TrEMBL record:
The active site is at residues 58, 138. This is Type II L-asparaginase. Coiled coil: none annotated. Keywords: Hydrolase, Signal. It holds the Pfam family Asparaginase. Residues 1-26 form the signal peptide. SMART domains: Asparaginase. InterPro entries: AsnASE_II, Asp/glu_Ase-like_sf, Asparaginase/glutaminase-like, Asparaginase/glutaminase_AS1, Asparaginase/glutaminase_AS2, Asparaginase_C, L-asparaginase_C, L-asparaginase_N. GO terms for biological process: asparagine metabolic process.
Amino acid sequence: MKRFARLNTLSVLLLAASLATGVAHAQLAPSASAAPTQAGAPSEARKANIVIIGTGGTIAGAGAAATNTAAYQSAVVPVDKIIASVPEIAKIANVKGEQVFQIGSESFNNERLLKLGKRVSELLRQPDVDGIVITHGTDTIEETAYFLNLTLKSDKPVVVVGSMRPGTALGADGALNLYDAVLVASSPESRGKGTLAVLNDEIHTGRDVTKTNTFKVETFRSPFGPLGYVVEGRTLYFRLPARPHTMQTEWDIDKLDKLPEVAVVYAYGNVNPASVDAAVKNGAKAIVYAATGNGSVGDYMVEPLKAARAKGVQIVRASRTGGGVVIRNAEQPDDKYDWLVTDDQLPQKARILMALALTKTNDTKELQKILWKY
Ligand code: ASP
């Protein structure tokens, strides 16, 4: 008791001193208030204008019972209804909903990716839009995030958000995730950081984030850690994305009308060479081979992959391990076979990057540089 009393006296003294100097506010909210406001960005004096684009997923899902945390129907609740279910959002931003799709994210394809990206770009060009939040299924949120990260031409914040549990479930995570996503999209500090993914109190770069668990709310991970946290209404950044994104890349979503076909072939003991032939027959311009370990290729798979390369199809060695870089000319003589390796991109992310890269060049040396750059 005595100690509390002493602390209280101390607190009163500190508060009096800080009121006099104006220091308390800066200490209580170091991140939000310390950052300089950039031209055109919302300041603390006005609320940001955020468009929330709905595309479906579990964040728009509903289950039969509150105990259905993992079995439910996704993509059924309209985005305006999701926004209305989180009235706290209106206190931090002026938001407008727009339904672009109502699908499970497993149903994304190149056409839908391009359509979404173009609409986001159009909205970002509007001077009265400060940032975009995209509600999205979690299954492929990492692919959309990486794609937008590489192709949007704006410094304004774009945040993808989803949830692991539908709004009807006990312990639903969508409301807080959406609130946090709007906070991040409204923060001047989020400008120029590329496309971000906000889930489970964390801010991730769209380049790195990946789903690692089928049902847990802490499923999203970045191999090098998140960029920051969102906690108690505060956006706290601790790291910056190291790889080029948005304004620094060679792609512009407004100029992309079609993406080349890139297939992922998954390796396993007894993998069937016919999967390579099928990809070639289907018109793949590149095959990302989700190889075992550090991109190792079974002896009976080398010839089919070489044959595909001989037909002009680019071969990219990636890894199915979920982490680490693939070393060029180590497990396979890439120079000799004219093959490529990923950097640390997971196969599904390498697929996105290769599709974009092939819109620029078909030269293997140039393609390798792109894989190592982004
Ligand atoms: N299958 C759902 C989707 O990706 C899962 C989710 O959103 O969590 O749309």
